[in-house]
Amino acid sequence: MRESDEPAIEFREVSFSYPFRPPSLRRLSLRIIKGRKTAILGPNGAGKTTLLLHCNGSLRPDDGAVIVKGEQIRYDRSSLRRIRRTVGLVFQRSDSQLIAPTVYQDVAFGPVNLGMESEQVREIVEETLHAVGLSGYDRRVPHQLSEGEKKRVAIAGVLAMGPEVLVLDEPTASLDPAGAEEMMDLLDELHERGVTLVISTHDVHLALGWADDVILLVDGEKIHQGPPGSVFDRPELMRQAHLSTPPLVELVRGLAARGVLPRDTLWKGVPVLIEAITEKIPGYKRGSCGTIYIADLSNGVSAHLPQLIEEKRIRHTGAMGTIAKREAARHGIQLHFTHGVIDKCLLRATMGEDSLIMTTGGMVARVRERVSEFSLSYKLDISIVEIGMPGEEHID
Amino acid sequence: MFDVILEEYASSNRFTERDSRLKFTLGFGALLLVSISMSPLAPIFVAISMALIVILLAGIPARVYLSLLLLPSPFLVLSIVAILLITGGGNALTAIHLGPYTLHLSTGAIVIAINTAARILGGMSALLFVALTTPMVELFSLLKSLRLPQEFIDLSMLVYRCTFLMLAEAIAIQNAQTMRQGYSNFRNSIRSISLLGSGLFIRGWNRGEELLLAMDSRCYDGRFEMPLKGKRMGRVEISLVFAYLVICGFLALAPYIWGSG
């Protein structure tokens, strides 16, 4: 791991029970590492929500301690305010999180209560709505928004307070599959900006592809913590946590058991899996690889871009991040991929097809890194062309 | 459900973003003049002009407008009948014999009835103008500019937000009951409606606790942001509203000045 192992949130022997109920958390100890994406997996009633409510001091443990940024939570008013500014909590039900009659007021709620001036509040709200892809929604009323939009407003309301850790309870629960993938894409974007993320879910597939660190929670107890591979590789843990094994995991496990693949193949993504399998096929002939164009849309779409797509006959286009998606939509560029973009473009490239990835800021570097790493480790000749970067190739 | 429909139109018509103070002045100014008017002239003018303004300028569908305007029609019919038969003055036109009683229909009664009907229509139109062009959210800014206590405004904003949540809950409960024959006869209906009431109370209570948690999680410190302000009012708009009210005022007060017949 590149980042340090400094915990953002730490639970020490935390026990908690609701009145007249069996304990929800039983001497729970865990560490949520700063800068990582942590998924808390567990069946219904395992105590996931209860655990998350402890992270920002909404619930107070009966026993044990919760430590945020090295400091034990104290439950007086001013300490709680500080904690809640550091740790933002997004509820499962957006409706219970949205308080104000308009989107603008709702996102402004936190900053106003933190005592910011109205000019500053306006700036922050605008910025935050932009970041979650809801610019221009200021005057809308929550009950007229879709479930996905409500979730984004709820996230914006928390982001507006500038949290270092964002805790989301079942962020994809009420979203359709595409909406869920886009939500995860948004979370990745926030992570890219340095926010530590914690989500609770029982969607194994989602946790598998997204998390750096998985915590398995059963009956208020942590039964396992580790990278996704370490969880999904152990059927007995999965059974204990009432989780189903995704078919893809079964496939790799089966192939690994037959000695065809190394066990860790799956955790590196589908393109790696396919490369590892095709490598084993005798007589498999690979054609030359395609090109992946990377466009930085931080400063909008350059006039050349649609022209380039036309000229180079780029068949597949994808956008990563809300800003890139919106910019592309604004300029009428059709998007084939809006989530899992890098993997999908890698797959096209290995089949000799060209694709374009539109994104912004720091994510450009991440795309380049991923592509060249993949290209190198399988000795492929995927070429990368960056567009719209100062001093780089310019297309006329 | 009318309140929801009203709100939908109010927040998506061509007048939505106009200054709410101006819309209120126009609506309530007209209402005031309608109610002090002696002749039916001013109310009829308001009824017709407001209908045109709301349908043609603000872009509210005529069907919606008419169905809203007809809401008080049972009240209108009943009161007109009562006024026609009970009030007197002028010359008697016909007499209706009901056993030992005799009811007279007189010219004076007809004048009063026409006046009343016109006032109801005019007043209703003026109110509908405000209701259909001003979203609830604008009202909060208006309350603020009327210097009402902030606590009152904050509470009304919370109530407003919660109304829609409670409405959704109520509809969900009612659907669940209807699916299981909850309203199949009178007896069941009574039982179902009481269950709905108590269910709603409990859900409302839970909602309240969730709301508290949500507000605490976001560092609530007694402050609530006001909605963004709409467009500032322009000179043209102000003069148009003023001109309209002057015409209304003239029509309403003319009979006082030149003496009514």
Structure write-up:
The complex is a heterodimer of chains A (about 400) and B (about 260). Chain A is α/β, with parallel strands linked by helices and about 400 residues long. Chain A has two domains: about 5-245, P-loop containing nucleotide triphosphate hydrolases (Rossmann fold); about 290-385, Tetrapyrrole methylase, N-terminal domain (Cobalt-precorrin-4 Transmethylase, domain 1, 3-Layer(aba) Sandwich). Helices cover about 40% and strands about 20% of the residues of chain A. Chain A is built from 16 helices and 14 strands. Chain A has helices at about 50-55, 75-85, 95, 105-115, 120-130, 145-160, 175-190, 205-210, 230, 235-240, 245-255, 270-280, 305-310, 320-330, 340-350, 360-375, and strands at about 5-15, 25-35, 35-40, 65-70, 70, 85-90, 165-170, 195-200, 215-220, 220-225, 290-295, 315-320, 355-360, 385. In chain A, strands 6-7-8-3-9-10 form a six-stranded mixed sheet, with helices on both faces. In chain A, helix 4 (about 105-115) packs parallel to helix 6 (about 145-160). By secondary structure, chain B is mostly helical. Chain B has two domains: about 1-135 and about 230-260, no CATH class; about 150-215. Helices cover about 70% and strands about 5% of the residues of chain B. Chain B contains ten helices and two strands. Chain B has helices at about 1-10, 20-35, 40-55, 60-70, 75-85, 105-135, 135-145, 150-180, 185-215, 235-260, and strands at about 90-100, 100-105. A two-stranded antiparallel sheet of chain B has the order 1-2. The mean pLDDT of chain B is about 85. At the A-B interface, helix 2, helix 3 and helix 4 of A face helix 7, helix 8 and helix 9 of B.
